[in-house]
Specification:
The structure is a homodimer.
Chain A (H helix, E strand, L loop, with lengths): L2 H15 L12 H20 L3 E2 L5 E3 H4 L4 H6 L3 E2 L16 H8 L2 E3 L4 H10 L8 E10 L11 E10 L5 H16 L5 E7 H10 L6 H9 L1 H15 L4 H8 L4 E3 L2 H10 L4 H16 L7 E4 L9 E10 L8 E6 L13 E7 H11 L12 E5 L3 H15 L4 E3 L6 H10 L4 E5 L1 H5 L2 E6 L5 E5 L3 H6 L2
Parallel strand pairs in A: 1-5, 7-9, 13-14, 13-15
Antiparallel strand pairs in A: 2-4, 3-4, 5-6, 6-12, 7-10, 8-9, 10-11, 11-12, 15-16, 16-17
Helix pairs in contact in A: 2-7, 2-14, 8-13, 9-10, 10-11, 12-13
Chain lengths: ~475, ~475
């Protein structure tokens, strides 16, 4: 066998014997899980404090539910599940072409987002759902995207939506939800950027460029990346003249969200339906926030590239770390219309857990004790010590102290290494001497200090801390 | 068009317009979710109190990881995910047969259980994992089984395993975990049934029927369903004589887990390696439990039909409700061997959430306030009331009281209907009069009583309760 063949054989053998996971997916080991749970629990708590109720939908949806809802590109990115059993049985061989064959051999796909399943759920359960329906949903979604840094094929979304009311109180609640979530997470460097779909429309109307509305929103949405000059060039390439371009460029500033700025915008715009609706909504939102606008900015360039928003649009961007938006959302007029239930206005936001995780990691603001899984480890130096310590361990657990007993009588060093690897704060060491004197040796694994205490004093000793 | 054609057309139209979910999958609406979360959180809390750490693995695994791990039937039940892109591009049309085609067009499958992914994770991360590795994992799994009552194609498993120690302390911990979980869930009617794989082997040895060991375990495992006579018949059909049969039937009793019964079993068995190991393990387990064996029974018929258990076996069965086991587990000697890491002994259990849910529902033991999503609803009778109540709502939330403001000024009846549908306890009603007098009308939605209180007294009023 020539050398290169051996090399190929070894590579093949290696990849056979070593298990792996699919590209773009991840295992979340204990330490990562603890931090993810911290983020998820914080968001969930805040959602609940505003009266949002949990919903979970199946991972698999019928492809008839998913297809056509995310544009042509989205359809490409759906993960499709092969029909079970002998799925080719009734299919003739002349169907051997993926576009033709796929609908015949696959009826189900993996959830692509949490919004379409919400719409589907509400339509299916419209008689039981009481409106306004406030639900939150925190589940993984799947997209057959090309994996790259920060982009995964399986990732979590954490959505909250209110369906069935046009009230701007919802917008105000979501601003408060943002501030509460990030305040609890101790994330202080961020901006909540707000815009209004109809403000964009009013400005494009004023520029007499409504025919290009969609393209223009896509261009200004890129302002962060390509700069003002880049936007200007693209607008001119689109065929807009100097005057039109400068009207649209006037959008591109980010300003404080206050009454004076709203009045300025109003006076700069003609008295159109779109302008009045946008300024009216934003004014009402400002009032519902009682003019408390910390972290909130009015960002005329915010378009979020999405067709279906019809009112206020939100985006949250971290300011101390180079990273895209960590949350987004907005109001839509007709989410459930795609499944035949018309006239249900709604609004929703979605947190990007992976990015929030990365931001918090980079800023090192996860709580230091967040990855402590166990408070106390009992270390038995001989077999008799198990009977001595097990009732104590039970007692600690009843008092809410996470406790484990090292399962054998390994050398102390090995047991303490285990404790250190798990970030455990206290070791309670029990050998012949301790048992004879009805005592325990308790070692602080952070300071290294060790002391002897009475056997019955343990719970009290630990509760004092 | 003849009548039957119209009927078919209507059915087709109907099924097109009404969205649905795949067979065997479920939506979990808010009330069901609240109860499921209650069970899951309880189990998680108990797992954590024993030092178990969270792990999550991807929903999709490579089919090379999954195939061959669950027997031929299991392979049939794997949901396979179609490769993305033009998956037929490089495949010739003569492969048009599902057995041949499938491996060419599908490389990934959905997780079938949480045990194989655990083994895969530990092998992939063996240098970072510190043993004994105590992990819990609560995630959905998927099986392309025929859906029926209580059997779903997507369902949750809640596993805990300890890898890397043969210590019977783990067995003792799992017995305690069972008792704590069910005690917290207020489920008092259940039995923890214990057996030992090697006790089964010792008895079958004594009956001189070791050649039929696997078949015999399958037969006695059915004792619950077919009765002692049924077991006897099947053993005789297998070719066993009267003496052999009666030795094996002696297994079929369920008895208290205590030293006297263990001694009896020991004296009834020949002095073999299997008998000594089984009695030795069970005796040590009894001692580690400090002879506290409430809820625990020794059940000689327990075999759990699974090949890979090598030591103690567990099963939990509810006794007040007709239902199969709600948890099971046991010790295995070589879980990670399938991926090339030999000699890692382990033990694990798994809770069946769906059945626990059904048992608790039937016994009506879910906490009454478990489906309260909101504590207080503010009902505004005119627009000015929003500014009046919003700071109060913020304040209640800061005090941990789940609060929402009805988003518009609908008639009071409509707002209270919403509160009732959501199980809300308190409505705070604000109209002209209340605002003029700096008051709030607070209505207890359970008793129907209503009183006026001072605006600033609200938090105190609610905290008193």
């Amino acid at each position: 066998m020539p050398y290169f063949c051996i090399a190929i054989f070894l590579i093949a053998f290696n990849s056979m014997s070593k298990p792996s996971i699919p590209r773009g997916t991840r295992d979340f080991g204990p330490k990562v899980m603890a931090k993810r749970k911290y983020i998820l629990n914080t968001i969930e708590q805040v959602y609940q404090s505003f009266g949002f109720m949990p919903l979970e939908t199946p991972s698999m949806e019928n492809l008839s539910t998913l297809t056509g809802k995310y544009g042509a590109e989205g359809d490409q990115l759906l993960f499709k599940v092969l029909n079970s059993g002998d799925y080719l049985k009734d299919i003739s061989a002349d169907k051997f072409e993926s576009k033709v064959l796929t609908p015949l051999i696959s009826e189900k796909g993996l959830r692509y987002d949490l919004t379409v399943p919400l719409a589907r759920y509400v339509v299916m359960n419209q008689n039981e759902v009481s409106f306004p329906f406030k639900r939150y949903q925190m589940q993984p979604v799947w997209r057959a995207d090309r994996p790259q840094k920060g982009r995964y094929r399986e990732f979590w979304q954490c959505d909250a939506d209110v369906l069935g009311t046009p009230s701007l109180l919802c917008e105000a609640d979501f601003v408060k939800i943002y501030r509460q979530v990030f305040s609890k997470l101790k994330l202080t460097g961020y901006e909540i950027r707000i815009n209004h779909r109809k403000l964009l429309e009013a400005v494009v109307e004023k520029a007499d460029a409504s025919a290009h509305f969609k393209t223009i929103t896509i261009i200004i949405d890129k302002a962060d990346k390509i700069g003002i000059d880049g936007v200007k060039n693209e607008l001119i390439n689109l065929g807009l003249n100097e005057t039109q371009t400068s009207v649209i460029l006037s959008l591109l500033n980010k300003q404080a969200f206050n009454a004076a700025n709203l009045a300025n915008i109003k006076s700069a715009l003609p008295d159109t339906e779109n302008a009045n609706k946008a300024i009216g909504d934003l004014t009402q939102l400002l009032e519902l926030l009682n003019h408390q606008t910390d972290f909130v900015y009015l960002d005329g360039s915010l378009a979020r590239g999405l067709d279906y928003y019809t009112g206020c649009i939100f985006e949250v961007v971290p300011t101390d770390v180079q990273m895209g938006s960590i949350s987004g959302g907005g109001r839509y007029d007709d989410l459930t219309g795609i499944f035949g239930l018309k006239g249900i206005s709604g609004i929703g936001i979605s947190f990007g857990i992976d990015r929030i995780y990365d931001v918090m990691e980079e800023l090192n603001i996860f709580p230091a004790d967040g990855t402590k899984f166990t408070d106390v480890l009992f270390c038995c130096m001989d077999e008799k010590a198990f009977a001595y310590c097990l009732p104590l361990a039970d007692d600690l657990r009843l008092n809410g102290i996470k406790t484990e007993v090292y399962p054998d009588t390994s050398k102390l060093k090995k047991q303490l290494d285990y404790a250190n690897a798990k970030n455990i704060s206290w070791a309670v060491i029990i050998g012949e001497n301790e048992m004879n004197n009805n005592q325990l040796a308790i070692k602080n694994l952070v300071s290294g200090e060790q002391e002897l205490i009475d056997k019955n004093a343990l719970t009290l000793f630990l509760e004092k801390l």
